[in-house]
Amino acid sequence: MPIQHIPASEELFKSGLLINTPVQARSNARVTALLDAAAKVVHEKGYEELTTANVAEAAGASIGTVYRYFEDRVKVLEALAIRNLERADRRFLDALEQIDGSAPKDAINVMFEMYLDMFRTEPGFRSLRLGDVLDIRPRNREPRLTTAARTMTEQLSVRFGFANNAATVLEVEKALVAVDAYLARAFFNDDRGDVVFIDSARASVMSLSRIAN
What we know:
Elements: H1 10-14, H2 25-45, H3 52-59, H4 63-69, H5 73-97, H6 104-121, H7 125-128, H8 144-160, H9 166-186, H10 195-206
């Protein structure tokens, strides 16, 4: 599964997860390489087996380089989850541009196919996903599936007249929670995904077309 070398983002820099914020391209590339290495470890071993030592080894870096930017393994996982959310948002918005003017069900299907493809192609995604699987206390942020639901609701509102309110966000989030759970099961021990659970995931999210105005 190939690694996409996309530079670390401003959202990550603003998150407070990094001990030192990169100010030069070289430092940015180093953080990106560490996250790429972390994704590789998570893909091969699962997020519970990730350590700062195996991130350093996978990146071909010293353990000191990891600790220069990340306090511990949990911060690495949180940073990787932020990157997963950003990549999902970017891919969703890019895909929507290709179907502008289509029916709501087409946009919803694009969202589903994009998320499904991330399970298949994004290293470590099927294990960590958007990071809500991490039990980190205190819980000082909203679930990232809620954040994703807000983004999707905004786009459905702008493009297709869905009501952009709390009730719609809740309906979208419930569908995304179901999709996330079904796909996690679909890819539990199948690299292509169990079609029975993939179809159940698709049915869950396609039901959103009923709430179009």
